[in-house]
């Protein structure tokens, strides 16, 4: 995930013989366990209002998000703004997360301050939602499944674009994109699972090639908004031409 976006589903964990109980990342999203506030109360908080406005702009104008929303709809998983997105206060280290238990994307209103950041977080989480829709992902028990979705999200969401890496003061030439994707996938797993770094690294390395090369629904790695626009046009035209056999 990008910049501490915890992207995996929370749920009640089971304590192993010698392991601390895993809360599956719920500690990062304290509002998940609180009683929902009324609309009037929420409207008094500037963070919440700003989050909702930025989310709406992302869903309406961002080509990454628009492609994913259409892909989800075609896969039988239509996304509704009020049902599948929730602006909440989160731990200071995360920007968003995907809660598989509720099929809901959490947007950390206290940590997302810029529209470009919102665009990237929404895209990242929608990739998880797309994976959740199209495949039988065992988010809670199979760390390789989690690793695969984290690799795809880092690869396709724009997390590892050149400009984002420069902003992080990370520079590289050959193979830098792959290095960024690997590092961010490992970070994401460690943020939401109580596993060792060695376990996270092993899971990522074992599935990296297959998951890095799985470019659905983009069909290409969108290194820029222009790439995402082309991918969106290509996606819309996929079924335009048919052949009689």
TrEMBL record:
GO terms for biological process: mitochondrial protein processing; mitochondrial proton-transporting ATP synthase complex assembly. InterPro entries: Peptidase_M76_ATP23 (IPR019165). Keywords: Hydrolase, Metal-binding, Metalloprotease, Protease. Its EC number is 3.4.24.-. It holds the Pfam family Peptidase_M76. One of its GO terms (cellular component) is mitochondrion. Residues 1-30 are annotated as: Disordered. GO terms for molecular function: metal ion binding; metalloendopeptidase activity. Belongs to the peptidase M76 family. This is Mitochondrial inner membrane protease ATP23. The lineage of its organism: Eukaryota, Metazoa, Chordata, Craniata, Vertebrata.
């Amino acid at each position: 995930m990008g910049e501490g976006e915890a992207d995996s589903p929370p749920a009640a964990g089971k304590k192993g013989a010698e392991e601390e109980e895993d809360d599956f990342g719920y500690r990062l999203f304290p509002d998940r366990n609180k009683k929902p506030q009324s609309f009037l109360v929420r409207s008094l908080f500037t963070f919440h209002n700003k989050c909702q406005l930025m989310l709406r702009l992302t869903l309406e104008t961002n080509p990454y998000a628009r492609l994913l929303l259409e892909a989800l709809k075609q896969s039988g998983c239509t996304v509704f703004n009020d049902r599948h997105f929730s602006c909440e206060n989160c731990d200071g280290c995360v920007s968003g997360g995907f809660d598989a238990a509720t099929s809901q994307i959490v947007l950390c209103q206290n940590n997302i301050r810029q529209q470009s950041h919102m665009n990237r977080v929404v895209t990242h989480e929608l990739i998880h939602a797309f994976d959740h829709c199209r495949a039988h992902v065992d988010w809670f028990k199979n760390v390789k499944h989690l690793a695969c979705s984290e690799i795809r999200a880092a690869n396709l969401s724009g997390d590892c674009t050149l400009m984002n890496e420069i902003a992080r003061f990370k520079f590289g030439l050959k193979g830098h994109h792959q290095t960024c994707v690997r590092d961010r996938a490992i970070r994401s797993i460690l943020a939401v699972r109580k596993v060792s770094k060695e376990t996270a690294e092993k899971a990522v390395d074992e599935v990296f090639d297959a998951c890095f090369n799985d470019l659905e629904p983009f069909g290409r790695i969108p290194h820029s908004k222009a790439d995402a626009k082309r991918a969106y046009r290509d996606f819309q035209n996929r079924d335009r031409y048919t052949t009689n056999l």
